[in-house]
């Protein structure tokens, strides 16, 4: 395959992944907001609280395999069956642990109804074990299949949730939707994988391969667990400090709007990063492409953050009406976390590509220390606004420390160059070349 065809494939892959992410965000904003308005802050807070508990323990299932498996599938195509089979069984066993640990934790702290909600949501992690198929699609630059899968799932899920709202279903049915969506996604992935002439029956588990994967992933497991704590513990700490599930719902509604933009760095990096890895023989070009990627992400985050300062109150009022009066100010604070989040998404993959997973641990250690200290100071004093400030400060601090300590000359140059808006013109030029060389 020539370079122009490769560029075209990456471009098309980007469009498909963006389509899926945009569909997800539209579903989240339209149907998700309807659900939040229907349930109200207290019941919506209960579901958000349960989702966060499960998310923290999900690392025992994902095991940091995502980016590593994609990379290994690109570099060792002849071992595809062994890599996928090993990754699947590792994730499946880990998923069972997630169900047990998250449910037991909730059992120790929460009323029975909330424990059952946590259990229902944790079941979804078991179904997600088969999402290793998505790693295969990423490695062969076929985001189209994943996108179609997710759009189908989102459409069906949206119809079911609207049905629940129209006919006044209880909270527990909405909690069960996480498992339903995961099961539907799993089934679709199986069908698409088979349509590509691939068969799960060829997968097999290898202790040798597991050892290879863990060699690369153990730093990611540690860092991801730490990351999940400071990313998802905010709502848990709000409930523990303020003892008001209604405030959890107010906060969750705000950050749902803020985090809606997070599909942008995930979609773009998932689509183009295989291309950056393939440029490893040309370091100068690889750094150039990575800098352009970072520039695109940073400036996207800046525009989004500024837009929220102007329209944030109107957005919350439009979507949630009068049920979430505290959410607008939280939204306008939390949105500033998009800049380090967008940049950090690309930076994390950059470290993985260079086998520098330990640097990610440094980033997460700085974050968890800062998060813990500020949470215990700011949340009791400023309530849910303090939780939002804690997240924003933590993200910036961790990013600055990591950039200044790992290859500071190269890292700082990439960061400063990425803030140069002229990079956006280079990206447009690159895109036009891809179009003309079809």
Task: Summarize the model shown.
With 438 residues, this protein is mainly α. It has one domain.
Description:
The protein has 438 residues and is mostly helical. The chain has one domain. It is 86% helix and 0% strand. The chain has 19 helices and no strands. It has helices at 3-57, 59-62, 65-75, 80-109, 112-127, 132-139, 143-166, 171-175, 177-195, 207-242, 245-259, 263-278, 283-320, 327-334, 338-353, 357-382, 384-405, 408-418, 422-436. Helix 1 (3-57) crosses helix 7 (143-166) and helix 13 crosses helix 18 (408-418). The longest helix has 55 residues, at 3-57. The relative contact order is 0.12. The mean pLDDT is 84.
Tag the structure with descriptive keywords.
globular; 0% strand; 438 residues; mainly alpha
């Amino acid at each position: 395959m020539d370079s122009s065809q490769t560029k075209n494939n990456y471009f098309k892959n980007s469009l498909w992944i963006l389509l899926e992410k945009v569909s997800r965000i539209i579903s989240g904003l339209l149907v998700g907001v309807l659900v939040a308005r229907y349930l109200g802050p207290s019941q919506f807070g209960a579901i958000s609280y349960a989702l966060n508990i499960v998310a923290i323990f999900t690392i025992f299932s994902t095991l940091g395999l995502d980016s590593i498996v994609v990379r290994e599938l690109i570099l060792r195509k002849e071992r595809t069956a062994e890599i996928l089979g090993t990754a699947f069984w590792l994730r499946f066993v880990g998923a069972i642990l997630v169900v047990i640990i998250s449910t037991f934790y909730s059992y120790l702290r929460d009323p029975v109804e909330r424990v059952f909600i946590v259990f229902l949501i944790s079941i979804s992690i078991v179904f997600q074990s088969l999402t290793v198929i998505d790693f295969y699609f990423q490695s062969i630059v076929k985001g189209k299949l994943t996108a179609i899968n997710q759009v189908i799932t989102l459409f069906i899920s949206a119809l079911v949730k609207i049905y629940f709202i129209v006919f006044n279903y209880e909270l527990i049915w909405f909690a069960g939707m996480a498992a339903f969506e995961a099961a539907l996604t799993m089934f679709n992935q199986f069908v698409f994988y088979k349509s590509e002439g691939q068969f799960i029956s060829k997968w097999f588990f290898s202790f040798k391969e597991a050892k290879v994967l863990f060699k690369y992933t153990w730093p990611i497991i540690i860092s991801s667990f730490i990351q999940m704590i400071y990313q998802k513990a905010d709502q848990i700490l709000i409930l523990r400090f303020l003892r008001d599930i209604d405030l959890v719902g107010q906060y969750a509604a705000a950050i749902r709007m803020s985090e809606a933009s997070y599909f942008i760095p995930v979609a773009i990096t998932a689509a183009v990063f295989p291309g950056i890895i393939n440029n490893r023989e040309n370091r100068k070009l690889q750094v150039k492409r990575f800098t352009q990627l970072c520039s695109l992400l940073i400036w996207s985050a800046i525009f989004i953050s500024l837009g929220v300062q102007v329209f944030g109150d109107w957005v919350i009022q439009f979507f949630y009406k009068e049920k979430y009066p505290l959410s607008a100010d939280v939204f306008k604070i939390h949105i500033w976390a998009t800049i380090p989040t967008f940049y950090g998404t690309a930076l994390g993959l950059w470290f993985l590509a260079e086998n520098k997973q330990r640097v990610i641990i440094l980033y997460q250690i700085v974050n968890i220390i800062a998060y813990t200290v500020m949470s215990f100071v700011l949340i009791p004093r400023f309530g849910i606004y303090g939780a939002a400030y804690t997240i924003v400060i933590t993200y910036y601090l961790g990013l600055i420390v990591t950039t200044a300590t790992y290859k500071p000359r190269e890292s700082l140059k990439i960061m400063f160059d990425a803030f140069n808006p002229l990079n956006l013109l280079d990206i447009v030029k690159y895109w036009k070349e891809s179009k003309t060389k079809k």
